[in-house]
User: What shape does this take?
Amino acid sequence: MKNKILNTFAEAVADIPHGASIMMSSWGTAGTPFNLILALQDHGARNLTYISQNIGGTHVIRQFPDKPGMTRYLDAMPYILLHSKQIKKVIVTWGRGTDRNPIEKMVNSGEVQAEIVPLGILVERMRIGGAGLQGFYTTTGVGTFYEKGKETKVIDGQKCILELPLRADFGFVRAYKADTLGNLVYRMTSRSINPLVAKASTVTIAEVDEIVEAGELDPECIITPGLHIDRIVKIPEGGLR
Amino acid sequence: MKNKILNTFAEAVADIPHGASIMMSSWGTAGTPFNLILALQDHGARNLTYISQNIGGTHVIRQFPDKPGMTRYLDAMPYILLHSKQIKKVIVTWGRGTDRNPIEKMVNSGEVQAEIVPLGILVERMRIGGAGLQGFYTTTGVGTFYEKGKETKVIDGQKCILELPLRADFGFVRAYKADTLGNLVYRMTSRSINPLVAKASTVTIAEVDEIVEAGELDPECIITPGLHIDRIVKIPEGGLR
Amino acid sequence: MKQRLDRDIIAARAAKELKDGDVVNLGVGIGTLCVNFIPPEKQVVFHSENGVYAFGRVLAKGEEDLMDLNLVNAGGQFVTPAPGMSICTFADAFDAVRTGRIDVTVLGAFQVSEKGDLANVVASEVGWIGTIGGAMEMASGVKKVIVVMPHTTAEGKPKILKECTFPLTATRCVDLIVTDVAVIEVTEEGLLLKELAPGWTVNEVQAITEPKLIISPDLKEIEL
Amino acid sequence: MKQRLDRDIIAARAAKELKDGDVVNLGVGIGTLCVNFIPPEKQVVFHSENGVYAFGRVLAKGEEDLMDLNLVNAGGQFVTPAPGMSICTFADAFDAVRTGRIDVTVLGAFQVSEKGDLANVVASEVGWIGTIGGAMEMASGVKKVIVVMPHTTAEGKPKILKECTFPLTATRCVDLIVTDVAVIEVTEEGLLLKELAPGWTVNEVQAITEPKLIISPDLKEIEL
Assistant: This one.
C-alpha cells in the first residue's frame, strides 16, 4: 500500500523549490493551512507564486482581537511569507494590506507583483485547473475595468471574457479527517476552496486533525477523493487547529 | 415558507411545453428518474431535446434479465419517449440502439437528430451550463474525428477544442432524500450526473425516496444545496425505486 | 443639517424587500444587518459565496461562546447555523450566483449611475492595490440588486451620478437604492423617487442627487 | 491454427503491470477481468468515471443478493464496495482523469497504430450512430494506457497497423499492447516485441502484425 502519511510538516514541504507556485485557502480562521504555512516559512523557499483568495485574511481575526488564541493565528497567516521575502507574485481577490500585512508597500515598490481577480473567476480558474481544462468564457467583468487587456469573444450574442486555468506545483489543504487512502472531509465553511486546491495542484499536502483507517469515513460524505492527495500530516499536540 | 413539495409526478411535469429541453441521468438502474420519465410520457409533450449520458441505459439490465423487477425498469427507460415520438433530438455519449430501443432506426431515417459527445466533454458541458459559464477549452478529441468542424484555439502551446455549455428547460433528478428546503442526498453511484442536472436546469424536479424536515440532513453531507431545486415529489408506494 | 436614517433603519427598509422563500446574499456592512429585520413569519434563506446555504445571524462581541472558527460568512464574520444548512465550495457557491438561483443581494456602493451601473470594488484607481471580491458576480448574476448606502460621500458629494467616475463593478445591474434619505428605483425611464426619509422634501433629495429624479405618483414617507 | 491465450490469461498478464498503490481505471470487456488477478499483497485502487473511487470486484450471475442497484461501474456492472470508497459525480471523476491522477487504464481496441494511436470508439464510420463514452479522456489523460485485445480481427486481419483505418480515439497514447499471442511495447523507435505466447515464434507474430516489429533482446515467453 502506498503510504501518504508523513510525521512532520517540515518533511512534507522539504522538496518545495525556489520559484514554485503554491495554492491554498485563506479565509480567516476557517480552512487556512496554518501549520503548512509556518513550515514553508521555516523551509525558506523563495520567489514563490502564491495563489489564494486573500493575502492575509486578517478580517475575521481583527473583529475579535480578544478571542483566545487569535494572536497565534495572526502569526501564521500567509502574509508572514511576505515578511520573510519568500513571495514574488500573488494571485488573489483581496489585496488589501493591514498594519501587519505589508502587501501594499511591497506591490507599490515593485518587490511583489499582484494579479487581482474577481472572486468567482478566481475560484473557477482553480476549478478548471483542477479539471484539466485549458480555459473558459464568462460574462463576469464585461463592460468594466476588468475587461481591459482581456481576450474576448461573442458567444450566443453575449460578449465573454476568456479566463485561463490556475494550477500550482504544490497545494496546501486544511481538512478535518483523512483516511489512509487520502480521502478527506472538512468542517463547515473550512471546506472553502480546499477541495479545489486539492485538485488543482501537482503535489497536494493535507494537514488534518485526525487520520483514520480506509473504510471509516462514510463514502457518501467524502468531499475529496483520495487520489488527489499525495501527503498527509496530522496536526500534533500544540499545533494550530 | 416556499413549498416545493408536490403530490404527484403528473403535476410536477404538467407545464413542460412542446419543444422543451430535458436533462436527466440515465446509467442503468443507478440514478435514473424512472417515475418522471413515465409522467412525461403520459403528459405527452413533443419535439423534446433529450440530454443525458445514454438514450436507453439498458446495459445493466440486460446483464441480469432474471433479476426481479428488472422488466419494470426496462419499461421506464428514457427510450420509451422515442416510442411515443416525443423526442426530436438527443445529446448523449452512448447512442447505441437495442432490440427495444429504436434510436438507430429513427436517426437513420432522419426522424430524430443525434449529437454524440465524448462522455467527459458531455458532463463538463453540463457542469459549465450549471455554473453559468459560456464555454470551455479542452484538449480531448484533438487529432481525432471529433475535432472536425469544431472551433479550435492554441492555448499555452496546445491545440484545444471550444465546447459550449449545456442547459435544459427542465431537469429530472433522482435523489435519495430531500429536505423541505430542497437539499438533496443521493445513494452511491446513483449520484451520477444528478447534481449536474440540478444546477444546469431552469426548472429542476426531484423524485426522492423520502422527504425530511430542514435540519435533519447533515450539512456536511448534502450534495445538492436546496436553492437548485424547484419541485420535489416523493415516490409513492408502488412507484419505481 | 437634516436628520438622516441610521444604518439599522436602512437595513430594515431593505429587508422589507425580501420575500418569503427568497434566497438572499448579504454584502458586508449595512447588508449583513438585514438579517435582524426579518419577521418570524417570513422565511428568508441566506446564501454566502464562501460556500454556505441557510445560515443564521452574525454573532457579535460577547457571543464568543457561540462562535465556531469553522463557520464564517463571506465577510469572515462568525454566524450561526440555520435549519437546512448545507456546505459547498466557493466554486459551487458561485455557480448558484451566475445561474440566477439567488433572488436578492443587498450590498453597499461607492457610486450608482442613473442607468443602474454599480461601482463598489476597489480597483487600483480607487486606492490600494485592488480588492474585488465577489461583487462582480453578485451584481451581474443575482435577480434583484439592492444598494444600501449613505446618499452622499463623507464630503457631502453625490454618490448617485449620471455616470460613475469610479471603476464599475457591473453595468445596468442595480434595481433599488435605499439611502439614508430616500428609496429610489432604477427604471428604464430613469431614477424613480418612491420614498423620502421623515422631514425630507423632493427638492432636498434632488439637490444631493446628480441625475434628474422622476417623482413617483405614489411618493410617500419611508415605511418599514 | 495455433493455440491463443484466453481472455483470463490476457487480463492476468495486463494485471501484472499494475503496481502497489496504483489508481486504475478498467475498461469494459477483458479490462474488467483484471480485478480478479491482483495478488492480496498488492493494493490497487479502482476508479470509475461514473463517480466511484475504491471499489471491489464485479458481481457475477448467482450473486444477485450482493447487488445494490445503486452501485455500478462505468460499464453498468454491479460491483462491491472496497474500504475507503468515495462517491462523486461523473464530472468530478473526469477531473481526476484529465489531471493525470489515474495511473493506469486497461482497455480494449479495434486498432492500434505503430505510433500508439488508438481506435476504440464507435463513430458513424464504424457503424451505429455513434458511441464514444469516456475512452477519449481515458486514452489521453491516464498516465499509462494498456490495450488488451485479440491480435487479429474475427476475419484474421491485423489490428496492429501502420496507421489506423478506423476513427481515432486519441493519438500516440498507447504504452503497452497485450494480445492473445504477444506483449508489445510502444516505444519512440517503434513496436517492441517483448513476450510471446507459448509455442509462437517471432515470424508467426510478425506475419499477423502490419508494422515491422523490433525484437527485444530480452524476448521471452509470456510470464504471469
Notes: The first strand of chain D starts at residue 23 and ends at 26. Chain D has five helices and 13 strands. Residues 7-15 of chain D form the longest helix (9 residues).
